[in-house]
Amino acid sequence: MAVPGSARRSLLLLLLLGLMHCASAAMFMVKNGNGTACIMANFSAAFFVNYDTKSGPKNMTFDLPSDAKVVLNSSSCGKENTSNPSLVIAFGRGQTLTLNFTRNATHYSTVESITDIRADIDKKYRCVSGTQVHMNNVTVTLHDATIQAYLSNSNFSREETRCEQDRPSPTTAPPPAPPSPSPSPVPESPSVDKYNVSGTNGTCLLASMGLQLNLTY
């Protein structure tokens, strides 16, 4: 993915064209000579540009404008063992956004290794969350993206590969509950015995009972 030209020149052109507005998703398509779509992409894009001035570094943000179009003579379905599919989108005055694709036996992806735009063969790439692509002093964020390369029937596949950002976070198991305190032992019932108090005049107290003393310390 690339935005050619100097960042400062791009910045001035974009400011003059008034490209700062709310973005909406748009469909972009590349077809082969038979009219069959080989690349389909639906997304909105936001650009963050960092540039240097005499007073120090500056930055600005803008959205991919609604009049952005596929550059047909630069985009391609690719040729086996010769070239890879490429989607080139033009906007503003000479600005372009390019997605190059490659594949192996199991999946396809964009050539830019720092992105997670990667899906299984015959599946669309789906990412509702923002997908960032870093290019020197420009960062492009794709929102609500549905992208598929190496199409065979001009339609998105029903099956999809979701981006990492959309996948649910792994749940953390709750900590184990502390062990319950052991119940206090229940004292055994004392045996019943007979007790008496006797004096010179004979027995003055006679009792039959179980006697138990409990000490707490």
Helix and strand arrangement:
Layout: H1 7-17, E1 26-31, E2 37-53, E3 56-63, E4 69-70, E5 86-91, E6 95-103, E7 107-110, E8 118-120, E9 124-127, E10 131-135, E11 138-149, E12 160-162, E13 192-199, E14 202-210
Parallel strand pairs: 9-12
Antiparallel strand pairs: 1-2, 2-3, 2-11, 4-5, 5-6, 6-7, 7-8, 9-11, 10-11, 13-14
Rg, alpha carbons: 38 Å
Main beta sheet: strand number and arrangement? 7 strands, mixed
Shape: rod-shaped
Helix content: under 10%
Binned strand content? 35-45%
Task: Provide the residue-averaged pLDDT.
Answer: 81
Question: What class do helices, strands and sheet pairing give?
Answer: mainly beta
What is the number of helices?
1
Order of helices and strands: HEEEEEEEEEEEEEE
End-to-end span in angstroms?
A: 78 Å
Low-confidence stretches: 1-22
Number of strands: 14
Describe the structure in brief:
Helix content is 5%, strand content 44%. The chain is mainly beta and 217 residues long.
